[in-house]
Fold:
Amino acid sequence: MSDLVGKHYDELVCPDGNGGDFHGFAALIGEGGSDKFFESSYRTRDGSLVWGLVIVSSLASPGEGQPFYLMMVDDITKQRSVHENRDWNLKLNRALARLHEPLVNSEASIMAVAEIIYEETRNITECQYGYVGSVNPVTGDFVVHSFSKMFGTECKVDPEGMNVVFPHDGDGHYPSLWGHSLNTGVAFYANDSMHHESSKGTPKGHVDLNNYLSIPLFLKDDLVGQIGLANKDGGFSARDLEAVREFGKLFVLAISRIRDKEKIEESEARFRDLVELMQEGILADDVDGRVTYVNHRFCNMLGVSRDDLMGNPIKSFVLKDDQGWYQQQRELRKEGLLDNYELAFLHKDGHKIFTLVSPTPLFNERKEYLGSFGVVMDITKLKGLESQLLQAQKLESIGQLAAGIAHEINTPAQYVDNNIRFLKTSMEAMLGIVERCAEFVEALKTGTSREDLLYMADMVMDVDELVLLKEDIPEAVADSLVGLDRILEIVKSVKQLAHRGMKGKVFADINEAVRSTVTV
Structure:
């Protein structure tokens, strides 16, 4: 108490606690003698700051001397701390709330989110300078997206530039004070930053850093970014560090969301490229059979553009003769059946495009049919080759049939030929006998002697030869007729098998057809 008695009130009050705007006791109580209420701060013997609620009442003064005042001071340090914390948390929550829109906006970029983080962290900590950046997941370089203008004309970093890159060394180590938290993974603040163990000083043209705060940002175990702040009047506090941590958590969420989106977009782009570069057509339709997607290959198949197909019924591009078949297949898709089927489309120039369709029906979680997705293979050339192969097979079959028929005909034709040759020889022999008979008759007419006539008679008639001719010629003729009948039967059967030579529908004898087939 002895330390206080005799001192002027102005000597007891801490000007810093009153925001540096303290004008003395007279200014606090003002003019007049009414009671006054005000808050004032004081420094304790150990240097800590305390707050008091001061109630001042004027007392009657004897004579014309100085007035007397009765002052009652209530310690409100705890209440003041509670209010300050409440105001601080309210300010912090409002700042965090302003990050809601960029965090949920699917179109927001890392740079846009970093800009807001940069502004809000500077405002909440009331510092002069700062930066927000991310770590390139491929190179490991630190990329600053938003930062204060801390550089002079001599600095190599463009103060107006965006996405300034600060590379690490070959061992993955980041240099100087800004790299300390990235290297250690530990958040810190230094209110005498120029004497920090990692400080290398500031480059020429760079503002002096009186104090510095840095928060490394991690997504699980991966280093993904950093928030750095500098030059706060009075220095940074643990409360500043925790506040910036909260902003860092939201920035990590934004980085994660944006990178996931980039991965999805990259995957979708690769898938689109794959689909567009496929050699098969891709076709998707909705529940009404209208085209919802088609790739470039399918457009080329039909010789039309994507705009010609999108939103139009697939059926309108199907060959008219195949439209009923296509409709049947659509009904099967609704039942979940996946069988491949052939379908003919009409090309823009009018020719047919034969395809093989591999469909996949699409259903929602309620098993309701939504449409289908199909891979369409152009088999027009294959169909042409198939037709040529079929024609070749037909020709091969005809060749085999002809060879078989020739073989079957060759046997009876052979013995008919042999018999005809025998008959030719026999006929020549018989003509020789006829000629000798004519000579014998002529000799009779001219009165040839008996001896000569007998000799000529012996020459005319060769009994053994006549016996053989009498026996062999009828057999040869009979065998020839049998052979010819066989040849006629084969020819008739072939003709009946190949073409009956009739117009219109007639009754057919199945037994006869079977016999003809067996014969052939």
